[in-house]
Amino acid sequence: MKTWHYALMVFLGGCSLGILSTFVKLAYAAGYSMSEVTGSQVLVGTIIIWIVSFFIQKKKLHGIQTLKLVLAGIPMGLTGLLYYQSLQTLEASLAIICLFQFIWIGTLIEWIFYKKCPSKGKILSIVILLSGSVLSAGFLGESIESISWQGAIWGILSAFTFSIFILLSGIVGKETPAIQKSALLSTGGLIITFILFPPMFLVDLPTVIGIAPYGLILGIFGVVLPPLLFSIGMPHVGPGLGTILTASELPVAVIMSALVLSEEINMYQWTGVALILIGIVVGNRKF
Fold first, then answer.
1. Mean pLDDT, the chain, as a whole number?
2. Membrane-spanning regions, if any (predicted)?
3. How far apart are CA 203 and CA 279, in angstroms?
4. What is the DSSP letter of 224?
């Protein structure tokens, strides 16, 4: 597979994450709580990926290897919990900007762990991406007094855990088949989610039936596809360029809000979407 194919995998993984916010909003509007939404997402997604893995040839792993992959999935589960927690006290536009800080955090992690000083082109790309995120999230209309700093802290923490997950998905279990690796990563996310938020909703049949459609969509695009695509592409592009590629999340979130939720998107926001796409191209010119 050519290098740009791996870059495309990571890009599509970011796109799948961008779909989540729209359906989370729909689930909240339907009256479901954060624990019900996140619980159904990780449960359905993990079940799907394990079912698929049973039909794929797997590699025999030692206990330590299995444990490492399960532990590497914990940051993925924490990212969803922290981000959804930030949405409880923060406007969606501001929460997205907080999560979007993984762009520079990922480059910083690569600098620290891989001793790779970011190039001028990568720094330019990050500046463009962050500028685009401010515009596309509609941040210009917000006042400083409306910001919940508690929510902002949760959002920034979700950016750190997402960056850590991107890093780990590229270095842990490199020789493990992607489906098998994704199943173990998803299991780690499921375990930490159910430890922090016990799935009490599972004993209420009407709730289970009602949340199932949301859990199916969120599970596929939030649990199945991202770790699978990142497992394939991230080892080949690295965490620095990988985080830039996953910036595709925010433009997709904006477009989905317009198409599905019929939210009005102004010219500033469309300009921001264009800037983010330009930033991704600038950061990955070699592909």
1. 83
2. 39-57, 69-86, 92-114, 123-140, 152-171, 183-202, 208-229, 241-261, 267-284
3. 46
4. I
Q: Which amino acid is at 154?
A: W
In this predicted model, what pLDDT tens digit does every residue of 167-221 receive, in sequence order? 887 788 778 888 888 899 999 999 999 999 999 999 999 999 999 999 999 999 9
Nearest to 250 by CA among 82, 76, 83, 61: 83
The pTM score is 0.83
Residue with tokens 């499921």: 190
CA pair distance 242, 249, nearest whole angstrom = 12
Residue whose token pair is 């990780």: 42
**Whole-number Å distance between alpha carbons of 3 and 270:** 30
Nearest-angstrom CA–CA distance, 233 and 189: 20
pLDDT digits (tens, 9 = 90+) for 8-44: 898 898 889 888 888 888 898 899 988 999 999 999 9
